[in-house]
User: Fold these one by one.
Assistant:
Number 1:
Amino acid sequence: MAEMKTAAYLCKGCEIDKRVNVAALAKIATKEGKMALVREHDFLCSADGVALIQNDIDNEGVTHVALGACSRRAKTEAFNFPTVALSRGNLREGVIWIRPDTPDAQETTQEMAEDYVRMMCAEVKTMQVPAGNQKTGTIKTILVVGGGVSGMTAALEASKAGYKVVLIEKAAALGGWAAKLHKRVPTREPFKSPEDNGVADMAARIDADANIKVYLNATIAKTSGSPGRFKIDIAIESGSVVTEDVGAIIQATGFTLYDANKLPHLGYGKSPNVVDQAGLEALAKEAAASGKPICRPSDGQPVKSVVFVQCAGQRDASGEHLQYCSGYCCNVSIKQATYFKDSNPDIDTVVLFTDLRTPGNGEDFYRSAQNRGVIFSKGVVSEVTANGNTCTVQFKDLILNEDTAAEADLVVLATGSVPTSGPELEALADAKRAAESGTEETKNVVLQMMDKSVLNLDYRQGPDIPHFKHGFNDSHFICFPYETRRTGIYAAGPVRRPMDILQAQEDATGAAMKAIQAVENAGLGKAAHPRAGDLSFPTARLEGCTQCKRCTVECPFGAIDEDEKRFPLFNESRCRRCGTCMGACPVRVISFENYSVNTVGMQIKAVDMPDEFSEKPRILILACENDAYPALDMAGMNRNAYDPFVRVIPVRCLGSVNTIWITDALNSGYDGVMLMGCKHGDEYQCHFVKGSELGRYRMSKVYDTLKGMNLEIDRLMDMEVAITDMDTLPGKINAYAEQIKAMGPSPFKGL
Amino acid sequence: MARKEYAFYPGCSSQKGASASNYLVSVESMCKTLDIKMTEIPDWNCCGASVSYAESGELPRHVMNARNFALSEQNLPGQTIVATCAACWLGARESKERLEHSSGLMADTQAALKEAGLNIKVIPEIKHMVEVLIEDLGYDELKKPVKKPLDGMKFAGYVGCQTNRPFGIANESFENPMYLDRLIETVGGEAVPYDQKVTCCGGALAFSEPEKAQAQIKDIIESAYDSGAEMLVTPCPLCQANTEVYQGQINKKYGTKFNMPVLYYSQLMTLAYGGSAKEAGLKGNVIRATKLEQFAG
Amino acid sequence: MSNLNEQMADRYKNNFLKEIEEQAEMGEWVKMCMQCGLCSGSCPTHFHSGWDHPPQEIFMLIRAGKREEVLNSQGMYMCTSCYNCYVRCPRKVPVTHVMHGIAEYAYRIGRAPKAQPTLHLSKTFWTNATKYGRVNEVQLTQSLYFKDGIGSGIKKAMEMQKEALGLVMAGRLNPMEALGMGHKCKDVSGIHKMLAKAEELEAKNKAAKADTAGKE
């Protein structure tokens, strides 16, 4: 490796030189930053400025570049020097744009800029150029699990984009639930009439597609490997196992209907004339095949009146049944009501609902059903009783506020969907622990749970994708749909949230695109979303490792296994580069080439620390680079000023924050530390799903340390920041700064 | 020749000696200044108003309006019908819309008109006087003749219902129409913002359900008072009558001391154009607008 | 008139929704209501006494087939024709007209509530307006005041005496109208013939629909 040669470049453009003394900054870069080469430039991101840097790299042997200019988020195309280590000092968005241009502010503004120059110099010296993941897998085939509409769509879309597909379906034919539909909800203008379910056409296209290999009556016996080189053992009908090599996986395993047998009070099982939505589709298919109207199962007489009961066992606040809305059932009941009205307008067709929810263009379809004379009543059904060939539906009319009843030949229950998402991993882990030295019974529990496994991953972290709420697969539903917590495995369709066919098709298309990105990035040794293209990956100094397993347990993406000696074994291509392992490591042996305990630690130490009499406190802000740091940049773009005593260091995720940074900062005289990370919990927005939650959990331990150091706990402040907070963030920083000033200087200052 | 000519449909309340005759007087003065010629549709009849719904049925109501269309087109061909009353305008526009969208209704209407020796070839355009002012002339033109701006006077522009809903004035919102405020400002007055600008005065229910209507009227006047308005201004004869005439009853019932004059926009304009108290029909206000009488000199 | 009521109920075989759709003006919109309640919340007479069923409930009652409850309701007559519900309805249901239509139908078949003051006003107004082609405001007022008999009428007239005197003084009420000397159209007989024809056609149209329904 070439000898390290450092260089600092200070930009004078964008009025930086009007607001701060750039010559003084250059002096600091030389004397304190110890940069071998220091240059100032009027307009660094211009072709001329970029050429200057490139020339130094090419001809002066510069290997480490520190740029004092704009935010690291700006001008990334111009400042793209992949062969050298690069740090950025944020003099524009981070200093001159967030400070007032007044004589009073001049001194503190200059001090701020000087510190950022010190920090960028300190950082770059601890960085290395990432070499990229060498253990790459180059397989581009995409596995689709599930042959329903979602799976078929994903397969067709991936194939259209030129990728080979392996499609596995556990049933004997493609089509899933959609194949059982007499018709589907309209998808085209004017959204008035049900359409053909479309399954035959899709299945024929798959049959004719040379890129798509289909396994029917097949399940996955084992999944091993990582993006770019997954190995899939497929159990096929004959009982034998075949192995396929794939680069990425789309899980489109869909749903099953909520079991209507759990709803005896709604008459299911008590009368054959009470059916669920699938039961009605079967009746409609049968009727269409025989050319007869839809008939009552009890005596085969044509149905003259039908009541649809919405939210049957759904949106149940008691917790006994499904607590959520399945999203598609209102449109389906509207559709099924048109089966009756279109065959005979005189059939009494009543839909009892509490809130009619019609996603997509369902509102048009809803109106068309009203126009056909379908009666929609706001009511809650309490009981359905059978009396001979008819049923009585007892319900409370919510508009007229009265208990009333309707007679019907047929009652259709909208029971909603339950995802086919595999076992819940924590419950499985608990069951496994219970079975370790336990009875046959406890072992059977594990077997039953494993029987539900879809992927059978051989990962340390469990056989399937973690769940979110209500048994749906976690797929970052707020910000990045399809992204599961297993890199290279994407969830699509109603397995990740309730949805209808049209949404599932859109979902499958998106997941196919993500799978394609994953195989391409894996082949290049690059990270997948959200640090797409990142070449760094974590390494551990194993001689210092205590085998505590925190990294393997905490990794949100199941990237770390254990080797035979129980040391962490990194699967680089499963890694998302969030640094949660680095933050977790109590002995600090995990690092990235360009992001480590040192790269941040040295910045913390580089800041000039005024003494306790200066009345110049120092507040460290560790800001998540995904939301908080851009929000701070935007505050700068809007020229919203904030306190000059803060020093901001971006971090990859709150999960990557190692507690040593906090204790080091407080020990070295900082008066306060602010952590800015994304929302966690049920409505998490953390780009790494669990990172901010784990980071916050760790910080809660630091409060004990603070007490041990005899420091006020308010010297550490944890703040949830979303990207939309750019207007309120400066105010919050200022409020904290006032709090710190009121508290007085840290007793550790100057020690 | 006048710069604009229209077929005038004054309606039952705005004819001479009727409850909104002062509206008529001020409209005539205003139109004279603005050089607008209004020719009364010969032998026009009542629009039926909204409240006749139960007795009139559908076809007879449209037929009444259709008779006016036929008379207008026959005697004043090509001219737009202009109504000053909100209900007349609404009734006529509604009939025009329905007749133009239903050939069956139109055929029946023609059959009925034939009994009176009339028929419809084309249904004329129908405008409210306010539309003539702001669409055909525009605020700039309305401002030009202002000789005596109503400086320092505070008005609550009471738009009410039927010039506002369901048709409304083009480009105005149903919830907060601004045209009346702009008319007030055009003649130099101050339009105070207040809550009850589009609250219903009770309409015809002032007769049949006086307590309900008076409760609404009280809300309107109270809100105008609280917002600092000295006078109410309206574009509708029924709004004018209801909000003015019942103030005494409301005072008796609620112990209030309302005494707020209620003017037509056309009265303000006439005065700002230099017209006399008589030309503005100020004498026709039951609650005398003393401030304006003094202003008119 | 109750004959007509029974005829209609019979013809429509208790399918009240269909009855309203065919017999009430704009009745075909009833089925399009989505029960959001914006009409009820927008009504200025909301929460006043007598408002037994707001529009949202009227729609629901019709669909639930509660014929008597709808036809007897006071709710429709609370309409001031302010059109708030009409412009706010997210389904573009012309609620104002539907209310008028149902009220008119209830009255036509003799099922409207007795002594309904707004219904009385409606009758009085139309009769007054069509007698001479234009409204005679004095006679209109008189007949409204005296609807409950002479005593009550005098009391009301006395209460409003000050207001009436104000209007007379302001030149806005012509006492001569009381004697039939007021406003009138020239071609009164033409108007009467025209209206007679319109009533005849309307009755014929509605009866034809009911007959078709009855034969189904």
Note: Chain C has two domains: 2-114, 117-190.
Number 2:
Amino acid sequence: MKAKIKITLKNGVLDPQGKAIEGAVKGLGISGVGDVRQGKYIEVDLSETDPTKAKAIVEQMCKDLLANTVIENYSYEIG
Amino acid sequence: MLRASVIVFPGSNCDRDVETAITRVTGFAPKMVWHGDASVPASDVIVLPGGFSYGDYLRCGAMAAHSPIMKDVIAKANAGTPVIGICNGFQVLCEAGLLPGALLRNASLHFICRDVFLKVENDTSFFTKCYRKDEVIKVPIAHGEGNYFADEETLNRLEGEGRVAFRYSDADGNVSAETCPNGAQRNIAGITNETGRVLGMMPHPERLYENALGGTDGRRVFESILLSTLEAA
């Protein structure tokens, strides 16, 4: 199975990289661009085949390492 | 006698600076301990040095916080061994859960390497007792991610419990948004844990401990370590 994990900064946490990207995108002359937030995308191959067990494994890796829950949220799909 | 241990991670680059500072200021050379070791020798103080452990992969300090040696560092810290994290070491302490909050990318997005003024807020902790409250010192910073973040409740608790050790200020001790180099909340440059025996700070005291280096304002961190250790002996 493969876990596809998205990590994003929580609302209210300053994202200066997102702001810089926003400025650059607007600099391209593209109109209609609002707030830009940058995050991370991580793919993990899993040997586990049971979806419930795989979910528990992914939860643990997200909480313990992949995301810092002081500043970040995470979400994932397993398939 | 001072038994200090400096943890060396792959990518640490201030480990030998802090080794030299401890040796020159206290007269006792620290042990250098590799991150892959399972345990830290019995120590009066453990130092997590500055640098770019694991190349800052994932988040600054995130990988180092899970390296083999950290299990014992956390256990010893929880048992009362003093631990200081400088710059990347501060980031590691936050990632390891020994200090609250996190260090974000500087608000300006720039890596900042220059001397800054700090207002001393806490002059009673293990690491700061040789300073005087409200005095202003000058110590360099060198980081891209020193923007201290914590939720309001945590910030209020840190302030209420006297756990803010240093704040970014001007030369007269004024603390404002203008005197904050990196966007850190409430100008926080360094904090301690509940007992004052774990300190994390972004500025580098090991870079200014004798006049040949341009100043001595960082020296008293190491004098505090020695004094606190001798007092407890």
Note: Chain A touches chain B at residues 13-14, 16-17, 20, 64-66, 68, 70-71 (CB under 8 Å).
